[in-house]
Amino acid sequence: MKKTALILAALSLAGVSYADNVNVTTKPSYSVTSDFSYTSEYVFRGLKNSNAAFQGSVEVGQDDARVGVWTSQPINSRQYNNEIDFYAGYKLKLDRDLTADFVGTYYYYPESTGGATHHSYEIGVGGIYNLGGLNPGFAGISTSLYYYYDFRLKAQTLQASVGYSIALKDFGTSIDFNVYGGTVGTHDLFPDATGVNVRESWNYYGIGVNVPYKLAENAQVHVGASLSQNDKFFTKSGGLPHRDASINAGITLGF
Fold first, then answer.
1. pLDDT tens track for 68-112
2. Burial level of 240, CB count in 10 A (0-12/13-18/19+)?
3. What pLDDT is stored for residue 148 in this prediction?
């Protein structure tokens, strides 16, 4: 396992240390959430970044602000690069059902070589709308629309999604569905490749399902599956758009 995979253990130990020292009678003004998961494929905006990988994150939130770190560590380290993302965001509630979201992300690939991208950074702005406010029959349905701009890849991304959650109260869980689609246009797909300035664009779309189960007040496990496809990068045989299916499972802890 790569050296940077140690970040997962370090983040977990940090969470344990915090839990051991906090006074349970005092509710902090901020929250700390950590997640450790496995995925059979890591796909980002329609493009496959790795096969099976371990992924972990820690996020600190206070009121409507959040900062966090997320990492993906491919199990087959010889073929795929690892990734560490640092992000910060702020949500602004515009009315009962509409929320604006602002986010900035720094993408870091510490073991990239050759012309592979070593790092990149982007900003994003979006809106989240809960349809339940329009009609009680739409309860559990949420929509979102986001725009992102990556400064190094000179890439613009527009992504829309619709989520629907079915509560299964008798079983203490829910079934959460998500359908999404997006379009990407970039003027420098490989900014660290010398003498190369690749312009590319593609559309992507997919569907996912997730089932969380609460183990305790601040702990839950989750399992899920997803299917994604893009219309630009084709398979070697048949000329069909590339399609990726994956399964995932993990545990989320809050402090």
1. 999 999 997 677 889 999 999 999 999 999 999 999 999 999 988
2. exposed
3. 98
CA 165, distance to chain mean position in Å, is 18
Kindly list the domain boundaries of the chain, sorted by start residue.
Answer: 3-254
Hey, which bits of 46-113 come out as E strands?
Answer: 47-50, 53-62, 65-74, 83-93, 98-108
Report pTM: 0.85
Nearest to 7 by CA among 158, 210, 15: 15
Dihedral (CA of 2, 190, 67, 139) sign:
negative
Helix (H, G, I), strand (E, B) or coil at 25: coil
Q: Which residues are bridge partners to 232 per DSSP? A: none
Residue in this structure with the two tokens 């969470």, named with its chain if needed: 15
Burial of 102 per CB tally in 10 Å (0-12, 13-18, 19+): middle
- The dihedral of CA 74, 75, 76, 77: what is its sign? positive
Question: 3-254, what's its fold?
Answer: Porin (2.40.160)
